[in-house]
Amino acid sequence: MGNLRRDIDGTEQLLLLVLALGAVTGSFILQPTGNGSLALPIPFTGIQVYLPEMCMSRRVLGVSCPGCGLTRSFVAAAHGDLAAAVRWNPMGPVLFLVVLFQIPYRAVNYLGLWRFRPWWIRFKAGLAVTVWPICGGLVVAWLIRML
Questions:
Q1: DSSP state, 65?
Q2: Which of 88, 89, 91, 76 minimizes the C-alpha distance to 136?
Q3: Which of 26, 55, 58, 52 shows the shortest CA–CA distance to 41?
């Protein structure tokens, strides 16, 4: 049973690593446009494919959700435009840093480095506490934007 848990944990770590890499890589590849949309440049062609509105809440209900603007915020942060990143979603730059941090963190966990070091165990336990303030920040920022 111990080996099964390690395999599941390793698979989970690898999945989260791949997702974080995809989000960060996508943030650098996508290009902001002047009208607030995002474009995917096709290499060597000069063609840009414009992405549609992604928020299902806004599409279906006409109401933005706490995560509205996060993709555009991540892209703005990746391109060094912190002011635009905060405008799109005030928690965007914070979450961008969290996702960026996930890359080395998940790689270390997946590879099993420092697994038995007491300071790493305490560090991992301390990170669990950060989830709720980040979720709370998203909701508070959303409520303020809704007013």
A1: -
A2: 91
A3: 26
Rounded to 5 degrees, what are φ and ψ at 39?
-130, 145
The pTM of this model reads: 0.82
pLDDT (tens digit, 9 = 90+) per residue, 95-140? 999 999 999 988 988 888 877 788 877 887 778 788 888 889 999 9
Q: How is residue 52 annotated by DSSP?
A: P
User: Cα–chain-centroid distance for residue 106?
Assistant: 14
Rg from Cα positions in the chain: 18
The residues with which 47 forms a beta bridge, in sequence order, are 42
List b or e across 73-102, with b for residues whose CB sees 16 or more CB atoms inside 10 angstroms: bbbbbbeeeeebbbebbbbbbbbbebbbeb
**φ, ψ for residue 49 (rounded to 5)?**
-100, 120
Structural tokens at position 134: 């980040």
Which tokens sit at 44?
Answer: 């060597």
Q: Where are the beta strands (DSSP E) in the chain?
A: 31-32, 38-42, 47-50
Q: What is the DSSP letter of 67?
A: T
Report residue 47 as tokens. 């063609």
32 burial (CB, 10 Å; 0-12 / 13-18 / 19+) is: middle
